[in-house]
Amino acid sequence: MIIAFSADDNEGVKSRISHHFGRCPYYVFVEVENKNIVSVSGEENPFFSSHQPGAVPEYISSKNADFIVAGGMGPRAVQFFEQFKIAPIIGVSGKIEDVLDDILEGKYEAVGVRDYDPSKHDRHKDELEHGHT
Prior knowledge:
Elements (H helix, E strand, L loop, with lengths): L1 E6 L18 E8 L2 E9 L10 H8 L4 E4 L4 H9 L3 E4 L5 H9 L13 H4 L1 H7 L4
Parallel strand pairs: 1-4, 4-5
Antiparallel strand pairs: 1-2, 2-3
């Protein structure tokens, strides 16, 4: 299983998860097998400056990712990822290593378009707007 993380920096699992999946500066790809990390690679976001709708999901799909983890994303982006059979996990913040442990323990669920509720899945944006982190 490969989990893609939107990241603010390129420090592997020590990277901080970026709020926005498409405008993040980096992606960190973590391959996991039997709850153990097999490999970690970071890449610059080729669409950091600008991107067309669907470009990032297609790029993440080209990396064979099963999941995308980001602080937030809208319902249209969720739909694009679903078209590529990539499950979004959103509304999270912190370091990849901490969130990864929680994902592997089943503490986060992927969101689908039918389940999408922005009040639940854009929590980090609210925290930033109100000065909480």
